[in-house]
Amino acid sequence: MNRVLIIEDNRGIAATVREHLVAEGYQAEVASTAAEGLAKMRAVAPDLVILDLMLPDHPGESVLLTMRAEGLPSPVLILSAKSDEMSKVRGFRAGADDYLTKPFGILELLARVDNLVRRSRGGVFAREVIRFGSVDVYPAGRRVTVEGAEVELRPKEYELLLALLSRPGQVWPRRELLNAVWGYNPNVESRTVDWHISELRRKLERDPAAPRHVQTVRKVGYRLDCAAE
Q1: Alpha carbon distance 202, 39 (integer Å)
Q2: Computed over its alpha carbons, how large is the radius of gyration of the chain?
């Protein structure tokens, strides 16, 4: 049974969401503060977190940042009364997977929950280890090793690697990588992607000057070849 953690201090909303999730076959529990929610996640990682942004002890964004810093892998659906664009952008940049504003329709909420759980269960990041060539990626712990030795990646380098891994063998245009990793930011240029790609090659490829995995598609962008030895 899939487990959903609802971090919401409004008792009425939390009870309603929990009731409908249980009726749909989910195991659902509630935490009313950021601290309680993080404690529950550390004990047993849920299959999905539904997160309010305006909690009594800490903002929801700080919960997201703590989750990602600690390698807690659960997908997160933000459920918030904050409907402005910048709140949504900050939520996604902090690590949210989806965002739904209050007031909300319960059927839409359930559809989004189903989609996120299905995607996380069946996607590449549901695997304990993703391996290509001599590189091993451990999504749950945000760890990367090359020939068994741990490699330290900067946060954006790691996010860039995950983006490439999400579509192995497919071409990522530079602009799409910018949006996926850095979000919409007019001050970030496409050369930023090129520089981070060169750093990934330096750290992961046996010969960075002749990369076998992180490949350039001329005048378009990049792709990750997981089949190359």
Answers
A1: 38
A2: 19
How many percent of the chain have pLDDT more than 90?
Answer: 49
- pLDDT tens across 173-218, in order? 888 788 777 764 556 666 889 999 999 999 999 999 999 999 999 9
Domains of the chain listed by start with CATH number: 3-122 (3.40.50.2300), 127-224 (1.10.10.10)
Contact call for residues 98 and 77 (beta carbons, < 8 A): yes
Mean local confidence (pLDDT), 14-23:
92
Ramachandran area for residue 42 (φ above 0: left; ψ -120 to 50: alpha; else beta): alpha
Record the tokens describing residue 122, joined without a space. 């069946």
Instruction: Enter the pTM of the model.
Output: 0.56
Higher pLDDT among residues 163 and 119, named by residue? 163
User: What's the chain's average pLDDT?
Assistant: 87
Cα 91 to Cα 52: distance, rounded to the nearest angstrom: 11
CB 36 within 8 A of CB 63: no
Residue 34: CA count within 13 A, CB half-sphere: 16
Dihedral angle over CA of 99, 102, 106, 110, nearest 10: 10
